[in-house]
């Protein structure tokens, strides 16, 4: 049947048209599928770029946050250099931290966030500046008190003098270079008092009770001996505990005490002599009666 039909001219035309229609449908279908596939691949090809952009933005934001955290952590304590460089560091962090990827000009959320951050930073900087100013003022006041004090003051750690004010240097006949090199505190007493000084240091290091006020005989570098009154107390410093000592030359007081004792002795001798003479005179008078 197919062979007979195919041998007819009309049948051949119908078959040819049918094949052409099917071919056209196939071509159009293939084109549609290809176009759809192209659209799909275009959107898929864009995903890695978008994902890479998101990763870059995330890394930039996290890097900015970490940099800011590191900066604020470095400002703990009394480090003026961190505070002085805060503005420059913050600008650098914000410039390299991905503000472009954040689309700052287009996003009000980021604008508000950064504005609040800047206000907080400025308040922190102002507060730290005030704290530093108060600290510097307090330090200058304390240093002036120590440096200009009429009392000889020194700081001792162990048995070594680590600091001495000008009055202490002049009292003991020392030079500042000697203090910087390290002076053994017991060596500033006469030899017969040095062992007692070392014993006080040993007892203090073991936490045993030690008199906070003593009188002793000091020895200047030029060999002159003189009596001193010393008051001491343990203090806590940033680099550890130390002994703060106030030393007073009591030579004048001792001389005054000696003069007073001599005067009292003379008066006692005079009174005793007067007593004996009065007694002898009374005995003579009694004998005459």
Compile the SSE list and pairings.
Blueprint: H1 2-6, H2 9-74, H3 80-84, H4 86-96, H5 108-147, E1 152-157, E2 160-164, H6 166-172, H7 176-181, E3 183-184, H8 191-205, E4 213-219, E5 225-237, E6 240-249, H9 251-288
Antiparallel strand pairs: 1-2, 1-6, 2-3, 4-5, 5-6
Helix pairs in contact: 2-4
List the keywords.
alpha+beta, single chain, 289 residues, disordered N terminus, Beta-Lactamase
Describe the structure.
The chain is elongated and about 130 Å long. Helix 2 packs antiparallel against helix 4. The model is unreliable at 1-16, 42-48 and 98-102 (pLDDT under 50). A 6-stranded antiparallel sheet has the order 3-2-1-6-5-4. The N and C termini lie far apart (200 Å). The chain has helices at 2-6, 9-74, 80-84, 86-96, 108-147, 166-172, 176-181, 191-205, 251-288; strands at 152-157, 160-164, 183-184, 213-219, 225-237, 240-249. By secondary structure, it is α+β, with helices and mostly antiparallel strands. The chain has 9 helices and 6 strands, in the order H-H-H-H-H-E-E-H-H-E-H-E-E-E-H. Helix content is 67%, strand content 15%. Among the domains are: 53-141; 149-256, Beta-Lactamase, CATH 3.30.450.
């Amino acid at each position: 049947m197919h062979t007979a039909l195919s041998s007819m001219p009309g049948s051949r035309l119908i078959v040819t048209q049918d094949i052409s229609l099917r071919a056209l449908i196939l071509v159009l279908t293939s084109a549609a599928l290809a176009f759809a596939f192209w659209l799909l691949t275009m959107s898929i090809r864009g995903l890695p770029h978008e994902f890479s952009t998101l990763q870059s933005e995330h890394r930039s934001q996290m890097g900015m946050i970490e940099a800011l955290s590191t900066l604020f952590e470095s400002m703990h304590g009394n480090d003026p250099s961190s505070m002085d460089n805060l503005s420059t560091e913050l600008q650098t962090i914000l410039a390299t931290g991905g503000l472009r990827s954040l689309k700052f000009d287009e996003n009000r959320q980021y604008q508000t966030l950064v504005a609040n951050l800047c206000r907080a930073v400025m308040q922190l900087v102002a507060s730290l500046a005030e704290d530093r100013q108060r600290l510097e003022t307090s330090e200058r006041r304390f240093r002036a008190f120590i440096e200009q004090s009429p009392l000889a003051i020194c700081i001792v750690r162990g048995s070594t003098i680590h600091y001495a004010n000008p009055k202490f240097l002049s009292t003991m006949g020392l030079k500042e270079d000697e203090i910087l090199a390290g002076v053994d505190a017991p060596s500033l007493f006469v030899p017969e008092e040095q062992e007692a000084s070392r014993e006080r240091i040993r007892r203090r290091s073991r936490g045993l009770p030690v008199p906070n006020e003593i009188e002793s005989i000091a020895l200047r570098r030029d060999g002159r001996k003189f009596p001193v009154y010393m008051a001491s107390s343990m203090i806590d410093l940033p680099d550890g505990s130390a002994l703060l000592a106030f030393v007073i030359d009591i030579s004048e007081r001792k001389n005054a005490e000696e003069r007073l004792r001599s005067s009292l002795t003379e008066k006692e001798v005079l009174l005793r002599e007067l007593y004996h003479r009065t007694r002898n005179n009374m005995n003579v008078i009694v004998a005459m009666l």
